[in-house]
Amino acid sequence: MGYGSTGKLLNIDLTNSSIHIEEIGEEHYRLYPGGKALAAYFLLKNTPPNVDPLGPDNLLVFTTGLLTGAPFSTATRFTVAARSPLSGSYGESEAGGFWGPELKMAGFEAIIVKGKAKSPVYLWVNNGETEIRDAGHLWGRDPDQVQEIVRQELGDKLIRVLQIGLGGENKVRYAGLSHEMRHHNGRCGMGAVMGSKNLKAIAVRGKGRYLDLANDPQQLAELGKTLAKKVKEHPLSWDLQVKGTPGLTEGINAAGMLPTFNFREGSFDDANRLSWGAYEKDLLKGRGSCYACAVRCKREVSISASYDVGDKYGGPEYEAVAGFSSNCGVNDLSAMARANELCNRYVLDTISTSSSIAFAMECFEHGLIAPKDVDGLELRFGNADAMLKMIEMIAYRRGFGNLLAEGARRASKVIGKDSDQFAMQVKGQELPMHDPRGKVGVGLGYAVSETGADHLVAYHDTILSNPDSIYFKGAIPLGITEALPNRELSKKKAVTYALMENWSSFGKVVGLCYFGPAPRSFIQVDQILLAMRAATGWDMNIQDLLRIGERAIVLARVFNLREGFTRQDDMLPNRLFAPLQKGALTGVNISKTDFEQTLTDLYTIKGWDPATTVPTHDRLLTLDIEWAADLLKTVQT
Ligand code: SF4
After folding, report:
1. What is d(CA 540, CA 538) in angstroms, rounded to the nearest whole number?
2. Which residue in 269, 278, 270 sits closest to 247, CA to CA?
3. How many CB atoms sit inside 10 A of residue 219's CB?
4. Which atom of ligand 1 is nearest to the CA of 97?
5. How far is the CA of 258 from the centre of ligand 1 (A)?
6. Per-residue DSSP letters for 199-223?
7. The domain at 8-212 falls in which architecture?
8. Atom of ligand 1 nearest to the CA of 288
9. What are the 10-residue block averages of pLDDT along the chain, 637 residues in total?
10. Best of 232, 290, 300 for a ligand 1 pocket test (most atoms within 8 Å of beta carbon)
11. What's the gap in Å between 475 CA and the centre of ligand 1?
């Protein structure tokens, strides 16, 4: 009987082309059961301090979660982690799709890559066997061609090919990875790290079965059947199936939280042109899914309009819709879809790409940069042509695109003239498309996230503000006792936030999609506990699950502390402390004093020194990671 793990890691050194398989013991896996936890553990243990993110000594770690590949909805995720070239902090990016389950079925929990190949290569992981192969003929090619060529030369159409695009090859600091042209590890520049190693792709094929790894396969199989029926019973999972994340645009606009003109405003006059109704009528061609997931929230699109968009790549998610429409002031659905298509073709993070362009548009409108600085473009809000041209220039690192490929924070340092006020970023990573002036817990998440601004670091305030809602009731088993207003900043909000962050982190450890678990969605907390017990045979309770999530967060925090990050890095851009200029929240801001106080409360609740954010020795002990204290000896306390 197994415990949900293959117990094997693949170590690859590209400098000397060595491949080494390592075993992970069950006791080790109990503490770091995959995903974010296993990745953070390896980065802390095996990367030297102050490692160059784009140098050969930076590790690039691929980890599946304990439940990745289990036969039930949303157990699909895998993590890619490294020191981020965008932020210099702990970097991590999750994706669903099929590659993670395939890696597990191929016999491995994780792949750890170090070094740099002399020329482009790709990895071929085939049912426990691994080969490093030449990728000279793949370098510079688009993702669909790479996938096709790899499948043909290896003679199997079912191979899953995780790859970088031109963005990663050119080390754009927010380049990502993708597979099947529609599942993306977008954030933190993991594609640039992969490109710096001359690693074009990792092709994987596995013929194992998750149930053969599980302690109680029958119970897991039954859970899968039960959950498949529940998707339609829950309003949010059902809404995701019908509309996908693009269905969020109208509601967020009506609530005054749709980032518009680089977060200056909270509502967009032409939001109806980007609404779900418009998307469904003019863009939508079908629905897709990830491995074994009955939610099926992925969209397939194509359009022939002002800009043509083919059906090769997956459809825009909400983040791309808002990022390339309201936040850049563009009101053309086909232009937004084209921008998304270009990002997918070059494998760039849509959030950082759109936000970096919005930053440049605001600099342009304030006269901080002129047409001569931006290759003759009128880089104004609303100029769809200029936005699309800029994406190409970023991917190729041409002209002004070479500067924007560095991200908004680095670009603002070169532009100067107080342009940093327009760089909407935390720790160098650009903000996702949720204005935290309407849901301040999201702002706490943007600030404290070890990777820089991230909207999936905790569940949003809106989920827990109505005590009669199905969402709030779903959070009660986690210890949530009181519904709190979306905009409340208080010690109570800090308590709720800390629980929601630990729970979200747990999902990232074990491989669950953000859209699976309660309180956001349809899989109840007791069902997740049941899945964990059935998979592992371990005697666990809900507190154990929360501790798994917290341990991973603390390891990532220790990584950042070792790299010199301080409390001062946990801060929002000043614009969010100023009033919103338009929409339902006109005049609303975040009080900086209240925000700082809530951060202090939050660190105290977490068991961290509020002045430095260094976890106390007791907290490390409670989390069974006392060894991390050694790494903090040089940190100023
Ligand atoms: S909910 Fe959507 S993104 Fe998440 S696993 Fe299912 S299909 Fe994939």
Report:
1. 6
2. 278
3. 15
4. 8
5. 23
6. EEEEEEE----GGGT-S-HHHHHHH
7. 4-Layer Sandwich (3.60)
8. 7
9. 93 98 95 98 96 98 98 96 98 98 98 98 98 98 98 97 98 98 97 98 97 96 92 89 94 97 97 95 96 94 96 96 98 98 98 98 97 95 98 98 98 97 98 97 98 94 94 96 96 97 98 95 96 96 98 98 97 97 96 98 98 96 96 76
10. 290
11. 21
Task: Concatenate the DSSP letters of all residues of 413-448 into one string.
Answer: HHH-TTGGGG--EETTEEP-S--TTS-HHHHHHHHH
CATH 1.10.569.10 fits 245-430, yes or no: yes
Take residue 30 and report the two structure tokens written for it: 């109990």
Mutational test site, ligand 1, from 295, 296, 504, max ligand atoms within 8 Å of CB: 295
Judge if 245-430 and 440-632 fold alike in CATH terms: no
Question: What is the residue whose two structure tokens read 């009955």?
Answer: 294
Q: Which residues line ligand 1 (CB under 6 A)?
A: 74, 76, 96, 289-290, 293, 295-298, 513, 515
Taking the CA of residue 77 as reference, the ligand 1 atom at the shortest distance is: 5
User: For ligand 1, atom 2, which residue shows the shortest CA distance?
Assistant: 297
Domain boundaries, the chain: 8-212, 245-430, 440-632
Alpha helix locations (H) across 449-571? 470-475, 491-510, 525-536, 542-562
Pocket test for ligand 1, best of 94, 296, 521 (most atoms within 8 A of CB): 296
Q: Residue 540 burial by CB count (10 A; 0-12/13-18/19+): exposed, middle or buried?
A: middle
Does domain 440-632 sit in CATH 1.10.599.10?
yes
